Amino acid sequence: MKLLLVLFSCSLLTAKCRPVSKISGRGSFNKLLLISFDGFRWDYDQDADTPNMDALVKEGVKAKYITPPMITMTSPSHFTTITGRWIEDHGVVHNMMFNSTSLLKLTHVATLKRSEWWDNGALPLWITAQNQGLKTASFFYPGGGVNYSGQAVDRSLLKPYNHPDDNETEWQNNIDTVMGWFTEEDFDFVTLYFGEPDNIGHKTGPDTQERVKIIEQIDRTIGYLRNAIQKHNLVHRLNVIITSDHGMTTIKKKPMVEEIQLSKYLNFLTLTHFDLLDYGGFGMIRPRKGKEQEVYDLLKNAHPNLTVYRKEEIPENFHLARNSRIQPIVVMGDLGFNLNSRLILYVNKGDHGFHNGEMDMKTIFRAFGPNFKKNFLSEPFDSINIYPLMCKLLGVSPAPNNGSLLYTEMMLVDGRTLRSYVYYTLIK
Ligand SMILES: *[C@@H]1O[C@H](CO)[C@@H](O)[C@H](O)[C@H]1NC(C)=O
Ligand SMILES: *[C@@H]1O[C@H](CO)[C@@H](O)[C@H](O)[C@H]1NC(C)=O
Ligand SMILES: *[C@@H]1O[C@H](CO)[C@@H](O)[C@H](O)[C@H]1NC(C)=O
Ligand SMILES: *[C@@H]1O[C@H](CO)[C@@H](O)[C@H](O)[C@H]1NC(C)=O
Ligand SMILES: *[C@@H]1O[C@H](CO)[C@@H](O)[C@H](O)[C@H]1NC(C)=O
Ligand SMILES: [Zn+2]
After folding, report:
1. Residue-level pLDDT at 8
2. Where does the secretion signal sit in this chain (predicted)?
3. Radius of gyration from C-alpha coordinates of the chain
4. Whether the Cβ atoms of residue 234 and residue 182 lie closer than 8 Å to each other
5. How far from 412 is each of 280, 369, 372, CA to CA, in Å?
6. Given the CA of residue 334, which atom of ligand 4 is nearest to it?
7. Contact assessment for residue 275 and residue 283, using Cβ atoms and an 8 Å cutoff
8. What percentage of the chain exceeds 90 in pLDDT?
């Protein structure tokens, strides 16, 4: 009897507050645009002229910085944001797709079209939202171009191969396209990805005039976005989150330091079957059968700025070990020490993939729109918590995830939406 009463009052409440999308539009829930500027280090706005980002601080929410998951790489981190799952759970453990038995390796760009790399059981928000009646789209966002349990994102654009990352006119066109999706086609949730400032950060290093210039271009683009939102009459209907996947650091080179070159310490040919190295500060090695201890011993004290883990030893709080794609030996360089395998061919001046506790790996979080407080400075939090925030803003009942609203709900103007959302989840 008591139980019945409780359920009854809950359903009365939800009848009033629940999303009514299937009946008559989206009720009290606003649309959401998630924007990622790849490789935007948390402090990049401090030495650049960024009037639009500065204005957004007054008009919305800024986090001091946010912490990406370990591995601070593009696909793993973007997929944590869109799934709310740790990397060991969502399984996208690298930018490259690989098979350590067949020795197959695919580039990041090729991987963006391969469902088998992304579809490991953790459902990204596009799909969860679509299953609850929303309309979603991905514009170049990593993971948006494949199928999950056979289901594609409603609208998805893939970045063409060798596409220039820094064309400001095209950035504006892309924003216009997305505004059209919201206003003319009534999309509820769109993710929009930009390849900068990552590209410049790699090419010239983060502490250069070129990087400052691209931040100012990004800032103008954010200004363009603010105008476009007004022009399309979306000011009171659209929430916007601007974030990124990792930071960037200057690579340490000779003669400043002794670079890490693993072939100095072990014979790849006789001891290893497969490796994923020469890709920033994180790498993995699969030794030949019976050679695991030898590889480990050879690397353990090889270089003062190299850390080696057996898979079983990877710290629990990396949330990394519990996935079959993680190889028996994991290697990490100290900040700025890239992991070179056989030769030092690396020409990039900046890189990432380093420990997510390093300040240079931290990234940005900004948000504005009808549901966000104004002039609100948030303490730092983990990027994994963006997922439940997005679900709450959209009125979507979240899939199982590892994030929490505890760190973000105080950014919102109204706790009431939260309560109706909880009831909605209970009733489901
Ligand atoms: C990896 O390659 C091996 C050997 O070709 C194959 O048997 C296995 O199914 C592949 N694994 C995956 C996950 O594709
Ligand atoms: C997704 O599924 C559709 C329909 O089955 C198919 O045409 C498309 O090629 C699939 N896309 C990928 C990336 O596998
Ligand atoms: C930039 O993009 C615009 C619009 O797509 C195009 O017309 C222009 O040629 C591009 N500029 C460069 C330098 O690629
Ligand atoms: C590299 O190792 C040396 C020796 O342990 C240490 O003093 C230095 O701080 C390390 N560099 C970084 C960036 O951690
Ligand atoms: C993350 O969430 C998934 C799904 O709820 C759960 O299975 C997993 O144990 C969680 N991971 C941690 C470290 O709590
Ligand atoms: Zn990236």
Report:
1. 31
2. 1-17
3. 22
4. yes
5. 37, 10, 5
6. 14
7. yes
8. 87
- Distance from C-alpha of 428 to C-alpha of 424, rounded to nearest angstrom: 6
Is the CA virtual torsion 191, 194, 197, 203 positive or negative? positive
At a CB cut-off of 8 Å and minimum separation 6, what does 212 contact?
47, 48
Q: Report how far Cα 121 is from the mean position of its chain's Cα atoms.
A: 18
What sign for the dihedral angle of Cα 14, 16, 22, 25? negative
Of the candidates 225, 132, 138, 230, the residue with the CA atom closest to the CA atom of residue 181: 138
Residue 113 CA, closest ligand 2 atom number? 13
CA 214 to chain centroid, in Å, comes to 20
The rounded distance, in Å, linking the Cα atoms of 373 and 364 is 17
Residue nearest to atom 1 of ligand 5 (CA): 402
Task: Identify whether 74 is a catalytic site residue.
Answer: yes
330 φ/ψ sector (left φ>0, alpha ψ -120 to 50, else beta): beta
Which residues, judged by CB distance below 6 Å to any ligand atom, belong to the binding site of ligand 5?
Answer: 86, 89, 319, 400, 402
- Domains annotated on the chain, with CATH: 2-250+357-427 (3.40.720.10), 260-347 (3.30.1360.180)
β-strand pairing of 155-157 with 136-139: parallel
Token pair 């009646």 is at which residue?
Answer: 133
Structure tokens, 333: 């360089």
Q: Residue 94: what pLDDT?
A: 98
Distance CA 88, CA 106 (A): 20
Set 50, 67, 72, 74: catalytic member? 74
Q: Which of 253, 247, 209 is nearest to 346 (CA)?
A: 253
| Secondary structure class of 32 (helix, strand, coil) | strand
The bound ligand whose nearest atom lies closest to the alpha carbon of 150 is: 2
Q: Do the Cβ atoms of 323 and 121 come closer than 8 Å?
A: no
Distance CA 332, CA 41 (A): 20
Query: What does DSSP assign to residue 389?
Result: H
pLDDT, tens digit, 9 for 90 and up, residues 347-406: 899 999 999 999 999 999 999 999 999 999 999 999 999 999 999 999 999 999 999 999
88: left (phi over 0), alpha (psi -120 to 50) or beta: alpha
The whole-angstrom separation of Cα 251 and Cα 261 is 14
pTM of the shown model: 0.92
- CA 109 to chain centroid, in Å, comes to 16
Identify the helix (H) or strand (E) that includes residue 80. helix 74-83
